[in-house]
Amino acid sequence: MPDMLTLWCVSDGKPGHHSQLSGLAGALAERQHCRVRWFETAHQPLRQAAGAGQPPDLILCAGHRTHRPSLQLKWRYGGKLVALMKPSLPRWLFDLCIVPRHDGLAPGPRVLLTEGTLTDIRYSPLRQAGRGLILLGGASRNHRWHNEHMLTQLNALLASTADCHWIMTTSRRTPASFARAAAALAPAHCQLVTADQTDRDWLRRQLAGAEQVWVSEDSASMVYEGLASGARVGILPVPRRRPSRVSRGLDQLVADQRVCTLVSLLQNTATAPVVAPPLRETERVARHLLSLLSHTWSLPSGESAPGFAPPR
């Protein structure tokens, strides 16, 4: 039994997929000595692996473009292969698939269901009272975006929370016309930070301290990240083009009272969404993987895990 887990992470370079891999690799490294190596599909993973030395115990991949290269790595070098999504290839090719529940797969020996996608956002119990964060998206495959509709909602939210200091940020999908209108209308207790002024570390810091987080529903992954952080979470509706698995997942969160809507907040005259247990799915998956691999050793007290340095 080796005393260090050799972990290979295969990424397609997309930020969302990278954060899933980074989050799970970090959760594994907190529980087990890890030697972590990263591969990018754009740089021919098989060629990258030629000088890797130690073969992998575990290969993680996220993104459809990573599936074939990851299978090639498994067939040549061994190790268990885990896909962090519903794969486009037959599931029997993978040792395990980590799949959001809203994708509609049944759990089984090769399928582990999670509430939403995995993330590198970690739970933080310390919250700054009176601090709020608003995360806005834009038009997407499943949602239409109307500036006036969203501005009306934001005005209602900000007017009802005059004692809260808000930071509102946009995304790459947010129309420039909306950002200009929001900047002009934002009251004194709301600061607008546009997408080009932020990065992943900035988002982590904001989520770690905000008491409440409101997310436009087209940004479903941000809803789950808000829940993972331990903040109170509300959803701002965005007109839907069609029902989808993701939107049904969000509707279930509302029905389960893990998140709230603006209408329910205003009707109940509450000052913040309800407190819900934080989602700690990334940590749960890490424990599950180590159990499957029969890796029972742990880090010495106070010692950090070596080798975990995901690329930026």
Protein described:
By secondary structure, the protein is of the alpha/beta class. The chain folds into two domains: about 130 residues, Rossmann fold (3-Layer(aba) Sandwich), CATH 3.40.50; about 140 residues, Glycogen Phosphorylase B (Rossmann fold, 3-Layer(aba) Sandwich), CATH 3.40.50. About 35% of the residues lie in helices and about 20% in strands. It contains ten helices and twelve strands. Strands 2-1-3-4-5-6 form a six-stranded parallel sheet. Strand 8, helix 5 and strand 9 form a beta-alpha-beta unit.
Summarize the structure.
34% of the residues lie in helices and 20% in strands.
Any key phrases for this structure?
10 helices, 12 strands, 312 residues, Rossmann fold, 6-stranded parallel beta sheet, disordered C terminus, 2 domains, single chain, alpha/beta
Number of domains: 2
Query: Class of the largest domain in CATH?
Result: Alpha Beta
Shape: elongated
Radius of gyration: 21 Å
Binned, the helix content reads 25-40%
Q: Cα distance, first to last residue?
A: 32 Å
Low-confidence stretches: 295-312
What value does the average pLDDT take?
Answer: 88
Strand order of the largest sheet: 2-1-3-4-5-6
Q: Tell me the β content.
A: 15-25%
Summarize the topology.
Blueprint: E1 5-11, H1 15-31, E2 34-40, H2 45-49, E3 58-62, H3 67-77, E4 80-83, E5 96-100, E6 111-114, E7 128-135, H4 147-159, E8 165-169, H5 176-185, E9 190-193, H6 200-209, E10 210-216, H7 220-229, E11 232-236, H8 245-255, E12 260-261, H9 262-267, H10 281-292
Parallel strand pairs: 1-2, 1-3, 3-4, 4-5, 5-6, 7-8, 7-10, 8-9, 10-11, 11-12
Helix pairs in contact: 1-10
